[in-house]
Amino acid sequence: MAKMNFTHDVRALAGRFQLAGEFLQAEPFGRGHINDTYRVTTGHGLRTRYILQRLNPAVFPNPAAVMANIQRVSAHLSRKIAGEPDAARRVLRLVPALDESPYHRDAAGNWWRVYYYIERTRAVDVVETPAQAFAAAQAFGQFQKLLADLPAPRLQATIPDFHHTPKRWAALERAVTADAANRALKARAEIQFALQNQPLCRVLLDAHLPERATHNDTKLNNVLLDDATGEGVCVIDLDTVMPGLALYDFGDMVRSMTNPAPEAERDLAKVEMQFPVFEALLRGYLAAADFLTPAEMNLLPVAGQLITFELGLRFLTDFLSGDIYFKVQREGENLDRCRTQFKLFESIRRQEPAMSRLVASF
Ligand code: ADP
Ligand code: GN1
Ligand code: MG
Protein backbone atom coordinates (compact mmCIF):
# COMPACT_ATOMS: atom_id res chain seq x y z
CA MET A 1 0.00 0.00 0.00
CA ALA A 2 1.15 3.56 -0.66
CA LYS A 3 1.77 4.78 2.88
CA MET A 4 3.99 7.34 4.62
CA ASN A 5 7.34 5.75 5.36
CA PHE A 6 8.40 6.85 8.88
CA THR A 7 11.65 4.96 8.86
CA HIS A 8 13.84 7.60 7.25
CA ASP A 9 16.83 8.85 9.17
CA VAL A 10 15.63 12.42 9.02
CA ARG A 11 18.43 13.83 11.14
CA ALA A 12 21.11 12.39 8.84
CA LEU A 13 19.21 13.49 5.73
CA ALA A 14 18.80 17.02 7.06
CA GLY A 15 22.56 17.01 7.70
CA ARG A 16 23.15 16.72 3.97
CA PHE A 17 21.75 20.23 3.41
CA GLN A 18 23.04 23.71 4.23
CA LEU A 19 20.75 24.30 7.22
CA ALA A 20 21.39 27.10 9.73
CA GLY A 21 22.38 25.74 13.13
CA GLU A 22 22.05 22.32 14.70
CA PHE A 23 19.26 19.84 14.11
CA LEU A 24 16.67 20.07 16.90
CA GLN A 25 13.62 18.09 15.84
CA ALA A 26 11.54 16.82 12.95
CA GLU A 27 8.04 15.48 12.46
CA PRO A 28 5.99 14.15 9.55
CA PHE A 29 4.10 17.11 8.16
CA GLY A 30 1.14 17.99 5.95
CA ARG A 31 -1.50 15.91 4.24
CA GLY A 32 -0.21 15.55 0.68
CA HIS A 33 -1.03 12.32 -1.13
CA ILE A 34 2.29 11.93 -2.92
CA ASN A 35 5.61 12.82 -1.29
CA ASP A 36 7.03 12.05 2.18
CA THR A 37 7.15 15.40 3.94
CA TYR A 38 8.83 16.36 7.24
CA ARG A 39 9.12 19.65 9.07
CA VAL A 40 12.60 20.14 10.48
CA THR A 41 13.64 22.67 13.14
CA THR A 42 17.24 23.78 13.64
CA GLY A 43 19.07 26.32 15.79
CA HIS A 44 18.81 27.25 19.45
CA GLY A 45 18.04 30.87 20.30
CA LEU A 46 17.06 31.67 16.76
CA ARG A 47 15.16 28.75 15.27
CA THR A 48 14.73 28.06 11.59
CA ARG A 49 12.20 25.68 10.13
CA TYR A 50 12.41 23.76 6.89
CA ILE A 51 10.43 21.29 4.83
CA LEU A 52 12.38 18.13 4.01
CA GLN A 53 10.78 16.04 1.29
CA ARG A 54 11.38 12.74 -0.43
CA LEU A 55 10.09 12.75 -3.99
CA ASN A 56 7.77 9.82 -4.57
CA PRO A 57 9.69 7.48 -6.90
CA ALA A 58 6.53 5.68 -8.04
CA VAL A 59 5.06 8.97 -9.28
CA PHE A 60 7.97 10.89 -10.80
CA PRO A 61 9.87 8.93 -13.44
CA ASN A 62 12.36 11.76 -13.99
CA PRO A 63 13.24 13.52 -10.70
CA ALA A 64 15.98 15.53 -12.40
CA ALA A 65 13.34 17.11 -14.65
CA VAL A 66 11.17 17.90 -11.60
CA MET A 67 14.03 19.64 -9.85
CA ALA A 68 15.17 21.51 -12.97
CA ASN A 69 11.63 22.84 -13.56
CA ILE A 70 11.29 23.91 -9.93
CA GLN A 71 14.61 25.76 -10.01
CA ARG A 72 13.67 27.63 -13.16
CA VAL A 73 10.17 28.47 -11.99
CA SER A 74 11.16 29.63 -8.53
CA ALA A 75 14.05 31.72 -9.89
CA HIS A 76 11.71 33.36 -12.41
CA LEU A 77 9.06 34.10 -9.79
CA SER A 78 11.68 35.50 -7.40
CA ARG A 79 12.99 37.84 -10.09
CA LYS A 80 9.50 39.06 -10.92
CA ILE A 81 8.48 39.92 -7.38
CA ALA A 82 11.89 41.13 -6.13
CA GLY A 83 11.51 44.26 -4.04
CA GLU A 84 7.81 43.75 -3.38
CA PRO A 85 6.62 43.48 0.24
CA ASP A 86 7.13 40.07 1.83
CA ALA A 87 8.88 38.73 -1.31
CA ALA A 88 10.82 36.08 0.67
CA ARG A 89 7.62 34.34 1.82
CA ARG A 90 5.91 34.45 -1.56
CA VAL A 91 8.07 32.00 -3.48
CA LEU A 92 9.12 28.48 -2.55
CA ARG A 93 12.89 28.56 -1.98
CA LEU A 94 15.14 25.51 -2.15
CA VAL A 95 17.98 25.12 0.34
CA PRO A 96 21.08 23.70 -1.38
CA ALA A 97 22.69 20.45 -0.33
CA LEU A 98 26.24 20.50 1.06
CA ASP A 99 27.58 20.00 -2.46
CA GLU A 100 25.48 22.98 -3.73
CA SER A 101 23.15 20.65 -5.59
CA PRO A 102 19.38 21.39 -5.25
CA TYR A 103 18.78 17.83 -4.02
CA HIS A 104 20.45 14.96 -2.23
CA ARG A 105 20.31 11.33 -3.38
CA ASP A 106 20.44 8.82 -0.56
CA ALA A 107 22.07 5.39 -0.68
CA ALA A 108 18.81 3.79 -1.77
CA GLY A 109 18.51 6.18 -4.72
CA ASN A 110 15.77 8.39 -3.23
CA TRP A 111 15.72 12.06 -4.16
CA TRP A 112 15.48 14.50 -1.23
CA ARG A 113 15.14 18.27 -1.17
CA VAL A 114 14.67 21.02 1.38
CA TYR A 115 12.57 24.18 1.21
CA TYR A 116 12.40 27.03 3.66
CA TYR A 117 9.25 26.58 5.71
CA ILE A 118 6.85 29.45 5.04
CA GLU A 119 6.06 30.76 8.50
CA ARG A 120 2.73 32.22 9.71
CA THR A 121 0.68 30.39 7.11
CA ARG A 122 -1.62 27.39 6.93
CA ALA A 123 -2.64 24.88 4.31
CA VAL A 124 -6.41 24.29 4.33
CA ASP A 125 -7.70 20.86 3.31
CA VAL A 126 -11.43 21.53 3.22
CA VAL A 127 -12.74 24.98 2.40
CA GLU A 128 -14.20 26.90 5.34
CA THR A 129 -15.25 30.20 3.76
CA PRO A 130 -15.72 31.71 0.27
CA ALA A 131 -12.97 34.18 1.16
CA GLN A 132 -10.46 31.32 1.30
CA ALA A 133 -11.44 30.25 -2.20
CA PHE A 134 -11.06 33.84 -3.44
CA ALA A 135 -7.60 34.13 -1.89
CA ALA A 136 -6.36 30.75 -3.10
CA ALA A 137 -7.69 31.21 -6.64
CA GLN A 138 -6.18 34.67 -6.87
CA ALA A 139 -2.80 33.24 -5.86
CA PHE A 140 -2.98 30.50 -8.50
CA GLY A 141 -4.13 33.04 -11.12
CA GLN A 142 -1.21 35.28 -10.23
CA PHE A 143 1.11 32.27 -10.45
CA GLN A 144 -0.03 31.58 -14.03
CA LYS A 145 0.30 35.24 -14.90
CA LEU A 146 3.85 35.52 -13.58
CA LEU A 147 4.87 32.43 -15.55
CA ALA A 148 3.49 33.78 -18.84
CA ASP A 149 6.89 35.25 -19.73
CA LEU A 150 9.05 32.39 -18.50
CA PRO A 151 12.01 32.39 -20.90
CA ALA A 152 12.43 29.42 -23.28
CA PRO A 153 12.87 26.49 -23.40
CA ARG A 154 9.51 24.94 -22.64
CA LEU A 155 9.26 23.33 -19.19
CA GLN A 156 9.74 19.58 -19.12
CA ALA A 157 6.72 17.28 -18.79
CA THR A 158 7.41 15.79 -15.35
CA ILE A 159 4.45 13.41 -15.67
CA PRO A 160 3.66 13.04 -19.37
CA ASP A 161 -0.05 13.32 -20.24
CA PHE A 162 -0.89 14.21 -16.65
CA HIS A 163 -4.24 15.78 -17.61
CA HIS A 164 -4.82 13.86 -20.83
CA THR A 165 -8.23 12.61 -19.73
CA PRO A 166 -8.76 10.09 -22.59
CA LYS A 167 -5.49 8.42 -21.58
CA ARG A 168 -6.63 8.39 -17.95
CA TRP A 169 -9.81 6.71 -19.14
CA ALA A 170 -7.81 4.13 -21.13
CA ALA A 171 -5.68 3.44 -18.04
CA LEU A 172 -8.86 2.72 -16.11
CA GLU A 173 -9.99 0.34 -18.81
CA ARG A 174 -6.67 -1.53 -18.53
CA ALA A 175 -6.96 -1.64 -14.74
CA VAL A 176 -10.47 -3.10 -15.01
CA THR A 177 -9.25 -5.78 -17.39
CA ALA A 178 -6.22 -6.65 -15.26
CA ASP A 179 -8.15 -6.44 -11.97
CA ALA A 180 -4.77 -6.86 -10.24
CA ALA A 181 -6.13 -6.50 -6.70
CA ASN A 182 -9.29 -8.50 -7.39
CA ARG A 183 -11.50 -5.54 -6.51
CA ALA A 184 -13.47 -4.89 -9.71
CA LEU A 185 -16.64 -6.45 -8.30
CA LYS A 186 -16.65 -3.90 -5.47
CA ALA A 187 -16.53 -1.05 -7.94
CA ARG A 188 -19.07 -2.18 -10.52
CA ALA A 189 -21.26 0.91 -10.22
CA GLU A 190 -18.31 3.29 -10.46
CA ILE A 191 -16.87 1.49 -13.49
CA GLN A 192 -20.27 1.75 -15.15
CA PHE A 193 -20.43 5.46 -14.35
CA ALA A 194 -17.00 6.00 -15.87
CA LEU A 195 -18.09 4.21 -19.04
CA GLN A 196 -21.23 6.29 -19.40
CA ASN A 197 -19.37 9.56 -19.17
CA GLN A 198 -16.51 8.80 -21.52
CA PRO A 199 -17.56 11.49 -24.08
CA LEU A 200 -16.68 14.23 -21.59
CA CYS A 201 -12.99 13.24 -21.72
CA ARG A 202 -12.17 15.22 -24.88
CA VAL A 203 -13.96 18.47 -24.06
CA LEU A 204 -10.82 20.58 -23.48
CA LEU A 205 -8.51 18.72 -25.87
CA ASP A 206 -10.85 19.32 -28.80
CA ALA A 207 -11.08 23.05 -28.10
CA HIS A 208 -7.49 23.82 -29.24
CA LEU A 209 -6.72 26.08 -26.30
CA PRO A 210 -3.32 27.78 -25.89
CA GLU A 211 -0.59 25.90 -24.09
CA ARG A 212 0.74 27.75 -21.03
CA ALA A 213 3.09 27.08 -18.14
CA THR A 214 0.62 25.86 -15.53
CA HIS A 215 0.66 24.35 -12.05
CA ASN A 216 -1.54 21.33 -12.73
CA ASP A 217 -2.21 20.48 -9.06
CA THR A 218 -4.09 23.51 -7.78
CA LYS A 219 -5.84 21.94 -4.85
CA LEU A 220 -6.62 24.14 -1.92
CA ASN A 221 -3.85 22.80 0.31
CA ASN A 222 -1.23 23.53 -2.34
CA VAL A 223 -1.39 27.25 -1.56
CA LEU A 224 -0.44 28.63 1.84
CA LEU A 225 -2.78 31.22 3.35
CA ASP A 226 -1.55 33.96 5.67
CA ASP A 227 -2.51 33.41 9.33
CA ALA A 228 -3.27 37.08 9.88
CA THR A 229 -4.86 38.28 6.64
CA GLY A 230 -6.05 35.04 5.02
CA GLU A 231 -4.38 36.06 1.76
CA GLY A 232 -2.72 33.54 -0.51
CA VAL A 233 0.96 33.93 0.34
CA CYS A 234 2.72 31.17 -1.56
CA VAL A 235 1.86 28.57 -4.18
CA ILE A 236 3.61 25.31 -3.25
CA ASP A 237 3.89 21.74 -4.58
CA LEU A 238 5.61 22.66 -7.83
CA ASP A 239 6.33 19.08 -8.95
CA THR A 240 3.78 19.18 -11.75
CA VAL A 241 4.45 22.69 -13.04
CA MET A 242 4.77 22.05 -16.76
CA PRO A 243 3.12 22.89 -20.08
CA GLY A 244 -0.65 22.62 -19.71
CA LEU A 245 -3.93 24.45 -20.03
CA ALA A 246 -5.05 27.30 -17.79
CA LEU A 247 -8.32 25.43 -17.45
CA TYR A 248 -6.69 22.37 -15.89
CA ASP A 249 -5.71 24.65 -13.03
CA PHE A 250 -9.08 26.35 -12.89
CA GLY A 251 -10.87 23.00 -13.05
CA ASP A 252 -8.90 21.58 -10.15
CA MET A 253 -9.68 24.70 -8.11
CA VAL A 254 -13.39 24.19 -8.69
CA ARG A 255 -12.99 20.55 -7.72
CA SER A 256 -10.97 21.07 -4.57
CA MET A 257 -12.32 24.37 -3.27
CA THR A 258 -16.09 24.24 -3.65
CA ASN A 259 -16.75 20.93 -1.89
CA PRO A 260 -17.42 21.26 1.88
CA ALA A 261 -16.64 17.58 2.50
CA PRO A 262 -13.26 15.83 2.70
CA GLU A 263 -12.02 13.98 -0.37
CA ALA A 264 -12.67 10.54 1.19
CA GLU A 265 -16.04 11.47 2.79
CA ARG A 266 -18.32 8.44 2.97
CA ASP A 267 -21.57 10.34 3.46
CA LEU A 268 -22.14 11.44 -0.12
CA ALA A 269 -25.04 13.67 0.94
CA LYS A 270 -22.37 16.08 2.19
CA VAL A 271 -20.66 16.30 -1.19
CA GLU A 272 -21.76 19.13 -3.47
CA MET A 273 -20.50 22.19 -5.30
CA GLN A 274 -21.32 25.25 -3.19
CA PHE A 275 -22.23 27.98 -5.65
CA PRO A 276 -21.21 30.97 -3.48
CA VAL A 277 -17.76 29.42 -3.14
CA PHE A 278 -17.58 28.95 -6.90
CA GLU A 279 -18.46 32.59 -7.35
CA ALA A 280 -15.72 33.69 -4.94
CA LEU A 281 -13.13 31.53 -6.62
CA LEU A 282 -14.08 32.73 -10.07
CA ARG A 283 -13.73 36.33 -8.91
CA GLY A 284 -10.39 35.63 -7.26
CA TYR A 285 -9.01 33.81 -10.29
CA LEU A 286 -10.14 36.42 -12.81
CA ALA A 287 -8.83 39.25 -10.62
CA ALA A 288 -5.36 37.92 -11.43
CA ALA A 289 -5.75 35.90 -14.64
CA ASP A 290 -6.60 38.75 -17.00
CA PHE A 291 -5.04 37.05 -20.03
CA LEU A 292 -7.65 34.39 -20.89
CA THR A 293 -8.86 34.09 -24.48
CA PRO A 294 -12.62 34.08 -25.26
CA ALA A 295 -12.43 30.32 -25.87
CA GLU A 296 -10.90 29.78 -22.43
CA MET A 297 -13.52 32.02 -20.81
CA ASN A 298 -16.32 30.04 -22.49
CA LEU A 299 -15.02 26.75 -21.13
CA LEU A 300 -14.54 27.86 -17.51
CA PRO A 301 -17.90 26.28 -16.53
CA VAL A 302 -16.94 22.81 -17.81
CA ALA A 303 -13.33 22.72 -16.57
CA GLY A 304 -14.37 21.69 -13.06
CA GLN A 305 -16.53 18.86 -14.38
CA LEU A 306 -13.69 17.49 -16.46
CA ILE A 307 -10.99 17.57 -13.80
CA THR A 308 -13.33 16.17 -11.14
CA PHE A 309 -14.34 13.32 -13.43
CA GLU A 310 -10.69 12.74 -14.34
CA LEU A 311 -9.61 12.50 -10.69
CA GLY A 312 -12.48 10.09 -10.07
CA LEU A 313 -11.05 7.94 -12.87
CA ARG A 314 -7.57 8.16 -11.34
CA PHE A 315 -8.75 7.19 -7.83
CA LEU A 316 -10.76 4.30 -9.29
CA THR A 317 -7.78 3.10 -11.33
CA ASP A 318 -5.58 3.18 -8.23
CA PHE A 319 -8.19 1.32 -6.16
CA LEU A 320 -8.35 -1.41 -8.81
CA SER A 321 -4.55 -1.55 -9.04
CA GLY A 322 -4.13 -2.05 -5.28
CA ASP A 323 -3.33 1.52 -4.08
CA ILE A 324 0.04 1.96 -5.70
CA TYR A 325 -0.09 5.71 -6.44
CA PHE A 326 -2.05 7.74 -3.88
CA LYS A 327 -1.27 7.33 -0.18
CA VAL A 328 -4.10 5.67 1.74
CA GLN A 329 -4.78 5.19 5.44
CA ARG A 330 -7.29 2.38 5.01
CA GLU A 331 -8.52 -0.14 2.49
CA GLY A 332 -11.26 1.25 0.29
CA GLU A 333 -10.14 4.84 0.69
CA ASN A 334 -9.43 5.30 -3.01
CA LEU A 335 -12.87 3.93 -3.85
CA ASP A 336 -14.44 6.38 -1.40
CA ARG A 337 -12.44 9.17 -2.99
CA CYS A 338 -13.65 8.09 -6.42
CA ARG A 339 -17.25 8.17 -5.19
CA THR A 340 -16.94 11.71 -3.83
CA GLN A 341 -15.43 12.87 -7.12
CA PHE A 342 -18.20 11.33 -9.20
CA LYS A 343 -20.84 12.79 -6.89
CA LEU A 344 -19.20 16.21 -7.02
CA PHE A 345 -18.92 15.99 -10.80
CA GLU A 346 -22.68 15.48 -11.03
CA SER A 347 -23.29 18.43 -8.72
CA ILE A 348 -21.04 20.67 -10.82
CA ARG A 349 -22.70 19.51 -14.03
CA ARG A 350 -26.15 20.28 -12.64
CA GLN A 351 -25.06 23.83 -11.88
CA GLU A 352 -23.46 24.46 -15.26
CA PRO A 353 -26.20 26.80 -16.53
CA ALA A 354 -25.85 29.06 -13.51
CA MET A 355 -22.06 28.95 -13.79
CA SER A 356 -22.27 29.94 -17.46
CA ARG A 357 -24.53 32.88 -16.65
CA LEU A 358 -22.09 34.06 -14.02
CA VAL A 359 -19.06 33.70 -16.31
CA ALA A 360 -20.89 35.59 -19.06
CA SER A 361 -21.36 38.54 -16.68
CA PHE A 362 -17.59 39.14 -16.53
P1 ADP B 1 2.53 16.44 -1.82
O1 ADP B 1 3.01 16.40 -3.23
O2 ADP B 1 2.69 15.16 -1.10
O3 ADP B 1 1.15 17.01 -1.74
P2 ADP B 1 3.41 19.07 -0.89
O4 ADP B 1 4.63 19.68 -1.51
O5 ADP B 1 2.11 19.61 -1.29
O6 ADP B 1 3.51 17.48 -1.09
O7 ADP B 1 3.60 19.21 0.69
C1 ADP B 1 2.68 18.61 1.58
C2 ADP B 1 2.20 19.64 2.59
O8 ADP B 1 3.33 20.16 3.33
C3 ADP B 1 1.52 20.86 2.01
O9 ADP B 1 0.16 20.66 1.77
C4 ADP B 1 1.75 21.89 3.11
O10 ADP B 1 0.85 21.67 4.18
C5 ADP B 1 3.14 21.53 3.63
N1 ADP B 1 4.22 22.31 2.99
C6 ADP B 1 4.93 21.98 1.88
N2 ADP B 1 5.88 22.88 1.63
C7 ADP B 1 5.79 23.84 2.58
C8 ADP B 1 6.52 25.05 2.89
N3 ADP B 1 7.57 25.45 2.14
N4 ADP B 1 6.15 25.76 3.98
C9 ADP B 1 5.11 25.36 4.75
N5 ADP B 1 4.39 24.24 4.53
C10 ADP B 1 4.72 23.48 3.47
C1 GN1 C 1 -2.25 14.65 -5.46
O1 GN1 C 1 0.35 15.90 -4.21
P1 GN1 C 1 -1.03 16.33 -3.80
O2 GN1 C 1 -1.57 15.58 -2.65
O3 GN1 C 1 -1.03 17.82 -3.61
C2 GN1 C 1 -2.10 14.51 -6.98
C3 GN1 C 1 -3.11 15.42 -7.68
C4 GN1 C 1 -4.52 15.10 -7.21
C5 GN1 C 1 -4.59 15.22 -5.69
C6 GN1 C 1 -5.95 14.80 -5.17
C7 GN1 C 1 1.32 14.49 -8.56
O4 GN1 C 1 -1.94 16.00 -5.09
O5 GN1 C 1 -3.04 15.23 -9.08
O6 GN1 C 1 -5.45 15.96 -7.81
O7 GN1 C 1 -3.58 14.37 -5.08
N1 GN1 C 1 -0.75 14.85 -7.37
C8 GN1 C 1 -0.07 14.08 -8.26
O8 GN1 C 1 -6.04 15.11 -3.82
O9 GN1 C 1 -0.57 13.11 -8.80
MG1 MG D 1 0.43 18.84 -2.26
Describe the protein's architecture and organization.
The chain has two domains: 10-119, 2-Layer Sandwich (Phosphorylase Kinase, domain 1), CATH 3.30.200.20; 130-360, Alpha-Beta Complex (Aminoglycoside 3'-phosphotransferase, Chain: A, domain 2). It is 40% helix and 13% strand. The protein has ten helices and eleven strands. β2 (36-42) and β3 (48-54) form a beta hairpin. α3 (130-147) packs antiparallel against α6 (246-257) and α6 (246-257) packs antiparallel against α7. The chain is globular, with a radius of gyration of 20 Å. Residues 29-30, 32-35, 37, 51, 92, 115, 117-118, 123, 221-222, 224, 236-237, 239 line the site of adenosine-5'-diphosphate.
